[in-house]
Structure formats: structure tokens, C-alpha cells
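Protocol step 4 of 5: obtain the predicted structure for the target chain.
Materials: sequence only (see below). No template structures provided, no constraints applied. The aim of this step is simply to have a reference model before the mutagenesis design in step 5. Sequence pasted as it appears in the construct record:
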Amino acid sequence: MDYTVDRANLWHPYASAVAPPPVLGASASDGAYITLDDGTRLIDGISSWWCAAHGHSRPEVVEAIRRQAQELPHVMFAGFTHRPAMELAERLNALMPRGLNHYFYADSGSIAVECALKMAIQYQAATGHPERSRIAALKGGYHGDTVGAMAVSDPGGMHRIFHGILPQQFFAERPSCRFDGDWDDADFASMETLLDEHEDKLAAVIVEPIFQGANAMWFYHPEYLRKLRAACTARGILLIFDEIATGFGRTGRLFASEYAGVTPDIMTIGKALTAGTVSLAIAAASDRVAAPIQAFLHGPTFMANPLACAAACASLDVLDSYDWESEVARIERHLKAALAPCRDCPNVRDVRVLGAVGVLEVDRIPSPETTQRIVLETGVWLRPYDRFVYTMPPFVTDNAALDRITSAMRCLANAV
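Step 4 output (C-alpha cells):
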């Protein structure tokens, strides 16, 4: 493959346009593998940014998209509805936390977060509290790359350069009690103080339940969510769970919030929703939130795209077709056993595993050039960033491939 056009014209994510890092030419994908243009097959250790949970190119999903493309590729959702959108809503009714039954179909995870924030603010205004227009969030959080989503992501994280244009929100300290550790009530003190001080300004609190993703790669104790639910309810503040990365089994439960047994007022889902084929995300709201809002002020052009809705329905069929819970539990056991010895590596600060997520927190990550060399040598696609070497493999990844993934992670952690 000739990369001339790529190097001259294409601007890749989190990269320079004029001095880009190395890239690999992908030509096909199937199951847990990505095939390069020269025929090399790489194990996809991160599910193509966490979305291909059931493996690449699931034939059921591809066929659903093909059929839908022959009937109705797209129609605006203002004034129209269609079968795939309604079918998806019916499917979600059986899966979502009880009471979250109003689905706003967005076109990406970041936009679903924007919608959730706007819903919360419109709800407060509609119920007589227009002064409640600010949001509380957690340090270490990540909610997307659009302006509203960046504003509720870690203020010291990757978006800090945009501080000047972002709405100024409130942040509590990141929970420090580990998911599998002991709970300490002091861990909630920062959030409780924030809520007490700014109660009359806050429309909502938004958090990634249990698993803080891109900015922290951290698993925290479920009791934090139970405390947060009670505190928000007592103060009339809405609670938003961002399950875009955690939903549909990634942490070992269908939704990570199930570990705490609490339900938010609004929840965002995406990524694995369409099995890594086309972009679709959803902001789901309760009756309490939806009823007072006479007209929600948001309308994406490709909202409820029929191809995406058909893909999501097929993806949910795939979810029902195999014992994904057992597969995720198998991956968790394998990652725990294989990564535990990394605690003795001089460059490794911590090892964390939950469900189909394995994290090596390191002092330094290798350069893009070194990373690409190790990727090609090991045949495993991983993309370390900040201080994390991590894996979030497809649930269909077999044990032999997991051995190769964890071996590649060790190579990357030791390559500095």
C-alpha cells in the first residue's frame, strides 16, 4: 500500500498533521484479528478503541447493515420514524436499568454526553431551577472530545490546553478505594463537600461508573456510587452515568453500574452497541427527566440512522447468542495470572484487571516508533498512551491470543 496520500493529507487522532507517527495499513478484519495490506495478521488487543467487543466483522451485523442499506439507508428523524429505531428501543427496554426508557439516539459517544448534560440543564430549568446549570464530575474522568464533554473530563488531563474555551465545572477528587479493596467513608468526603457547597448551582453529577477510562484507567469501589446516588437524590441533583466504554459486558456485568446496584437518572451508552461497525450512541433518560422537557433542543443530522440502528439490533442478537459472561470471566482470570508478575518490573507502578480490561500503569511508555516495532514483532496491536499499557480485547479472544497480548504488554512496559 502506498501511504503517500495518507502522509500528505490525512490527519490522524492525537497526532501531528505534518510530522505524523507511523501508521499501519489495514485491509481486513475478522474475529480478534486485523489484517494488514501485506497480509500480516495482528491480534487486536484493544477492540479497535474498545468497540469491537464481539470481534470484528461479525457476519450477522454486516448482513443486517447490507439488508438495511437496500431498504432505507437514512431518513431524518424529525417528523419520521422507522422500524430499526423502534426495534432497537424494544430491545433496550429489556436490557437497560429499570426506568431508563426514553432513548435519544446520538451519532457518537461525545455527542451522547453533550445530550445528557443538556437534558440535565433543561430538566432543572423546566422544573423551576434555571440557576442549576453547572455540572460536577470527577478528577481522572474522561467523557469525550467535544466542548461540553471536555469540560467535565479531568481538568488536568489531555484537554487542559482548551481550558480557556471550556465551561467551568466543579470537580471532586478521584475515588481512591480500589474496586477489590476495603471501603473507607473518607473516600466520599470530597464529593460530599462539593455537593454541599454548590448544591444550588448543580444540575447534575456525571461519572464513569466503576471504571474511569482514558484519563485514569482506574477501577474504584462500588460503594462510591451508592453514596453518590443517595447524595444526589437528597439534594435534587440528577445523576448521569457514562457507560459508553463500560456498557455491554466490558467489566464483567452488562453495565458496570450493576456492581453497585443503583440506577442513574440519565445514562449514556455506545461503542460496543453496534459491535464495532458504525457509530451510534444513546442518552437514555427516566420519566422524571423526560416529562418536564417540552422540546429537547438537540437534533443531529444522522440521529437514529437506520443502518446504525440495524447494526445495533444485530449486535444485541450476537450478545444473546453466546455466553459472553463466561468469556469475560475467562479473560479476567487469564489477565490476572499473566500480568501479576509485572508488578516486579522496574517500570511498572501498578497492575489492575477487571473483566476484559488489563492495565499496566508505568512510569514511561515507549515511543511510537518503538511501539510499532514491538507490535510487528509480536503480532499484537496495542496502543499505549500517557502512562498506561493496557488491553481491552474482544470477548472472543482465545487463551493463546491472550498469552500473546500479555507478552506484548510486558515487552512494551520493559522497552523504555
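Step 4 remarks: The mean pLDDT is 97. The domain at 4-57+323-413 is CATH 3.90.1150.10 (Aspartate Aminotransferase, domain 1).
Proceed to step 5.
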